[in-house]
Hints:
Layout: E1 6-9, H1 15-22, H2 30-46, H3 48-59, H4 70-79, H5 82-101, E2 107-109, E3 115-123, E4 126-130, H6 139-152, E5 156-160, H7 171-179, E6 184-186, H8 190-199, E7 209-211, H9 216-224, E8 230-231, E9 239-244, H10 250-261, E10 268-273, H11 276-290, H12 296-306, E11 308-311, H13 315-325, E12 329-333, H14 337-340, E13 349-352, H15 358-363, E14 389-397, H16 399-415, H17 419-426
Parallel strand pairs: 1-11, 4-5, 4-7, 5-6, 7-8, 9-10, 9-12, 10-11, 12-13
Antiparallel strand pairs: 2-3, 3-14
Helix pairs in contact: 2-3, 2-8, 2-9, 4-7, 5-6, 6-7, 8-9, 10-11, 16-17
Amino acid sequence: MTAFRFTGAISALGAADRGALLDRAPQGNSQVAGDTARIIADVRARGDTALREMARRFDRVDLDALEVPRSAIQSAIDATPAELRRALERAAANIEAVHRAFMPAAVEFSPEPGIVVGRRPDPLERVGVYAPGGRANYPSSVLMGAVPARAAGVCDVVVCSPPDASGLPPRIALAAAAVAQVDRVFAVGGAGAIAAMAFGTESVPRVDAIVGPGNAYVAAAKLQLAHTVAIDSPAGPSELLLIADRAADADNIAREMIAQAEHDPWACVVAIVTSEAQAASVARALAAQLALSPRRGIVEAALVGNGGILVADSVDSALDFSADYAPEHLLIDARNAIALSARARNAGTVFLGSSSSVAFGDYMTGANHVLPTGGSARAYSGLSPLNFVRWTTFQRVDADAASRLARDVALLARAEGLPGHAAAAAGWARS
Length: 431
């Protein structure tokens, strides 16, 4: 039977285990940080030349051009099997519909007669979407970044994704770029891609914001460049906290845990049940399903390193723990899941009921799967149209209101030692 890092009753967790569960923020790796800083400096100084050298070093490919030709993108979508293309298009349509519905609206308010203060969302000019490579291809990450940007009205959407042996990003990622109507795609990966989009190079345009998941170097680059370009929430390994009542099916719980654990060996996957017998049933179901999993090694590494089956006194106490844990994905597999949803706080996204598989949200419901991890859901939200707009505040003051404001504004300005401000206000005073 698979070992887990965390087992037993939540109330009996030692300080070290509880701390490890709650403090999942990536620890600063000085080597990763240093290597990333050098990559950023190199790309800033040498542009495309540095990116080509990195492609040879990290991706083992010589690139004639960094930009993917439109013909290659069209060929990728043309070669996509009809059923897979339909699935990509269905996912994109749902993502667009949901994110258009989530678009914020402009607002105006008058705190006093003659004064109008407003705020409107203006789309960013150009956005960069990073689509990772490595252990798996992620066309869904292309859709999750690019389609909401389009829905928000972004003028220019750029995708960077590492090349494979062909010198291009994987064909399925290019097909997703076609479906998402991306403007330009570059065969550039890792921290170098983030630096290229942040500063611009001879080929890669400078962007206003960068979104999308990536490895430790990508995450480090985004954090190091956050003063240069807007980024989405801090991102790390995938996470699932699953809360189940006594009616939940052990096989279903096991399937959900495996689905998120198969992302990578550092995934954090924890189930909270309400009895020792149920915990044993889930463990048996996991063992049986793991024996058939093509990614068994990755799943087992995740469960041993950061996985757990914990027992809570009740679903209510499990939700209390969840608020502290602040997971990327929270699945409530309980009969009254909808009623419990009001208590579900500090989660990137919440799935309600046993049939609301996290996999559906990863691909097809239209919600975004780019979500805060490592406990950052206490303060950060998942990717949404808000990441692709900036707010412009505007104000109007008519002459009558200016006269009414003048005296008090002048008093406050003089109290702050700003006579020019006082004079600017007092000029509108009426005798």
